Fold this sequence. Notes:
This protein has about 240 residues and is of the alpha/beta class. It has helices at about 10-20, 35, 65-75, 130-145, 160-170, 185, 215-235, and strands at about 5, 25-30, 45-50, 55-60, 100, 110, 120-125, 150-155, 175-180, 195-200, 205-210.
Amino acid sequence: GILTVSREDETTLKEFMQQEGYVFVVALDSDSSVWESYQINDTPHTFFIDSDGIIQSMRVGAFENTSQVLSELEKIEPSTPPTTAVNTAPEVGALAPDFTLPTLNGLSVTLSNYRGKPVILNFWGSWCGYCRRQMPYLVEVSEERAKEGLEFLTVSREDQTNLKEFMQQEGYIFVVALDSDSAVWESYQIGGIPHTFFIDSDGIIQSIRIGAFQNTSQILSELEKIWEDTAGEGNDS
């Protein structure tokens, strides 16, 4: 289906819809709360969302023809019939599903290679306002604790060009694993972002955060859950 959102005066909208003969749904965001949650600065701004509620593509600016729309639509229309298999989302206390993915800098990364070190694993996208808002906090904590062994790994399904532009613009140098076929997102059952896993040195998930961190203190609080084991190992040696 198609859903539109506008902050415009209702009378003006009705006149336009009647004049053009349009019958699609228009949601009225009078207080701009939805615009703010989606970080809309310019219009038109279009999201293509699949049947699981996952954003698969985003377009800022106008489409010039129907072919461009159809090209984006293919990203949310499955090419193969859905399977009946049900994946179980990783839970606290479970081993974090392993994966190997190419990275934005042209290398590859394997999660299990980080065994022996605590890991913050963050699923995100540069188009996601909440992801962008919390990233400075994650970067600050990861850089401060890097000398103590903390690893910071992120996973994105986004277009490489957009990611590179964002990383260069913000001066970020953390590892971005590219999950172009969404296989890792599916194995971790990512329904919304940002989605962050705190994994201990044995590869066990000790905490999961869905949504953005508001400050570094919240991250440090979660980090304690994976740091205690690491500290303990160090004391035993």
